[in-house]
Structures are given as structure tokens and as C-alpha cells.
Amino acid sequence: MDEVSTTLSRVQGRVTSRDGTPIAYERYGDGPPLVLVSGALGTAEGERSLGGLLARRFSVVAYDRRGRGGSGDTGPYAVEREFEDLAAVVGEAGAGAALHGAGTGGVLALAAVAAGLSAGAVSVYEPPYSAEAAERWRQVAALLGQGRRAAALDLFLADSAVPEELRFGVADLARTLAYDIAVLGDGTVPERLLARVHARVLVVDGGASPAGTRHAARAVTGALPRARHRTLTGQTHEVGPHVLAPVLEEFLTEDRETAEAA
Predict the structure, then answer these.
(1) What pLDDT is recorded for position 1?
(2) Residue 168, pLDDT score
(3) Rounded CA separation 105/40 (Å)
(4) What's the rounded Cα separation, in Å, for the pair 94 and 73?
(5) Minimum mean pLDDT among 26-30, 98-102, 154-158, 187-191: which range?
(6) In angstroms, rounded to a whole number, what is the distance separating the alpha carbons of residues 260 and 90?
(7) For 140-189, what is each residue's pLDDT tens digit?
(8) 107: CB partners within 8 A, 6+ apart
(9) Which of 49, 68, 183 minimizes the C-alpha distance to 127?
(10) Which one, of 78, 87, 93, lies nearest residue 11 by Cα?
(11) Domain-wise residue ranges, the chain
(12) CB proximity list for 172: less than 8 A, separation 6 or greater
């Protein structure tokens, strides 16, 4: 954990989702509300580095998606329950809260807004709509279907920058990969769904990420009614928070200024 994350003044709490599931969150900073939506295997704790940087301008709320960290996991699972979880967190964060999601967290944020979630601007980092990613997700799904969680986790983390010693810490979250698979769908860019997202959206990718990942980011941008695309030179899927934070801050500040002037 870096210096920013260890010196944050955090307020922790829980909200209750529509189906009664408790959703744990933490809030830090002061300013316009911003909710961080984690990708696969992510938790609120993992968002502290980015959140700490953004907390200089925003009231940042990071939460544990259901089945992770301090949140409950009422069954049976359905993607719609995650929409309701996010809606509860947005309600706690404050009216007009902006959203930022990484990986499948970005997919979830866009799908929730398309389904009617009232939120402000949305930013997403590398939503995993690519043939290569979709194939890996299908293989992970097959392993989970066979009850081989450890193998599914190993496959998902293959070629990732997660240190070996930290992989044990996410082993108990392997079952939640099935939730991200459900959120992602068939892995193709859902053009009809994205056409229903009328919030302003920033789609970001890393300049050192695979070509398929970058192509997907451009395709998502093209399918959204009000979106722009940004590539961060030299970055990969494990983007540096110090590189991403000022880009998000600029976009979200500009969005608020535009809304106030309208």
C-alpha cells in the first residue's frame, strides 16, 4: 500500500441493497461525489491508491461488490442485483455521483446506467470487450463450471502483474469471477445497450496494452452517444494511479462545469 492510501482519513459503512444484501463501502475526501467500481477480484481496499489521489478534489466512495470483502452475497446471483447494489451506493454517495469503473467494473457501470441508474458522468478503463479476452473468460467459465476454482484463478491471472505472494489473498474471491463473466455477457461490444447510455463518458486505454484491448476501447467509444477516447502512453491494464487520476479529474471537473453552465 502506498503513502497516499495509508494516510487517508476513511469513513466506513454499509448500505442495504434492494434484496437485503449488505454492501460495505468506504468514503474519503470532500467534494463532488465519485463512486469507484472495481473490476474482477477487486475490492474497496484495492481502490485506495487511485481514490486517495482523487480525494483531493472529490468525495470518493469505493465499495466491495457482492461476495467480496465486507459485503454480503445473497443468492441466487443476477446482474440486476449488482445494478441495485450500485444504486444503493450511489444513493449513499450523493445525488449526481460520477462513476469510474475498471475492466468489468466499467462494463457494470455502463450497463447499470443503460438500465436506468441515475448518475453523473462515467469513466471506464479498458472494458474487456476483445476476442482474446472473451476467449480467456470462456475458459475461466468452463473451469468454474467444473468446480476448479484454483485453476480458473490461475488462468485469469496468467500474464498479469499481480505478484505471486498476493495471489493467495484473492483466492477466496475466485468464485466471484462467475459474476464478472455474467456482467460481460458474450464478450462482444453491446452496441444496443451502449446506445442507451446518455451520460458523458470517457473511455481510457493504455498505449502499451494489446491491440485488441485498444480496439475494443475505440469500439465502445463509437457505440456511446456522448463519449471521448483517451490513450495513456506507456500504460497497460495495470494502469498507474498517478497517471490515471489527473485524466479523470480533468474530465469530471469539465463535466461538472458544463452541467452547471447549461
Answers:
(1) 42
(2) 73
(3) 7
(4) 24
(5) 154-158
(6) 20
(7) 999 999 999 999 999 998 877 665 655 777 888 999 999 999 999 999 99
(8) 101, 124, 127, 128, 129, 183, 184
(9) 183
(10) 93
(11) 3-128+189-261
(12) none
CA distances from 243 to 68, 82, 196, 207, 256 (A): 27, 29, 30, 12, 21
Phi, psi of 124, rounded to the nearest 5 degrees: -135, 145
Measured at the alpha carbon of residue 86, what is the angle toward residues 235 and 111, in degrees to the nearest 5?
65
Grid cell, residue 241, equals 494511479
- Answer positive or negative: Cα dihedral of 163, 165, 169, 174: positive
Q: What is the pLDDT of residues 37-51, one digit of tens each?
A: 999 999 999 999 999
Query: Could you give the CA distance from residue 147 to residue 154 in angstroms, rounded to a whole number?
Result: 14
- As a CATH number, domain 3-128+189-261 is 3.40.50.1820
From CA 126, how far away is CA 220, in angstroms rounded?
Answer: 10
- Rounded-to-integer distance, Cα 137 and Cα 59, Å: 34
Report d(CA 189, CA 191) in Å as an integer: 6
